[in-house]
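Following up on my earlier thread - several people asked me to post the actual chain instead of describing it. Fair enough. Here it is, all 323 residues.
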Amino acid sequence: MEISTDIISLVSATLRISTPLVFAAMAGLFAERSGVIDFGLEGKMLAAAFVAASGAHIFGSEWYGLGLAIVCCVALSMLHGFASVTHKGDQVVSCVAINILMIGLTTALAAAWFGQQGLTPTLTDDRRFFEITLPFADAVSGVPLLGPIYSEIISGHYIFVYIAYIFVPCVYWVVFKTRFGLRLRAVGENPSAVDTAGISVELTRYKALAVNGVLVAFAGAYLSTAINANFFREMSAGRGYLALAALIFGKWHPKTALIACLLFGFADALQIRLQGVPIPGIGLIPVQFIQATPYVLTVVLLAGFVGKAIAPGAIGQPYIKER
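Reply from S.P.:
Thanks for posting it. Predicted structure:
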């Protein structure tokens, strides 16, 4: 009974921890399928977390915070597009600039606005998101096996968790079953052919970046207004990079990227539970080593599988229209 309880708890934690990775991976998919590199996901997630927490505190509503985070991230995506799509700048440099800017700016603004070094005020209960208990979750919790699965794995999550996993099939449908998705993929593979057909390469990429900004805003807002009740310095903690790794490992496909996000989330959930627990025959493993597990897993997976993943043909290449 104890083992099954631990497994259910681990699965539930995996879903929660994977949520920001899923949002960010789906955001990166839109950008990179259009041919625009985006490892600025880390900086945008950090910006969204700060703006969401600040907006919720100032305006008294978590939904205002989420809305402001979306505006902020779309603006950053447009800035990335302005530099790399309109002015044909180096996309990697643009991403690095966004990441560095947001790391410093969020901390500086927190100090200037709230007088706290790298922190925003703790959100009160009426200004943050809480877990949602689905209908009959408490009533069926005592039913063997199915009860705990419904009441603890399916029910009891923040609204972001449900939105994230609903978004994955929606992203698949948009990218692979709609006219916009066909144009998106074509721009990422052969922009010259798309331009010849009379479709604007720049406009398509800007649309992709706008969707990118919306999705990554959910990831940041989830961190600061749901699982935490405030923003703190560098709270994204490399999740943007992990999401990009999941996207690459998933070969720029929503379903396989989701699997990679869940794998990274499982590793993170597992390392939290292994801290301070002696391993039979090994003893107590240093906490630092256990905390590094998700990142080591990322390197191992990419080293073993990234060679088999073929990126969109025109990714990272600014399109210069022939005259």
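The mean pLDDT is 88. That should answer part of your original question.
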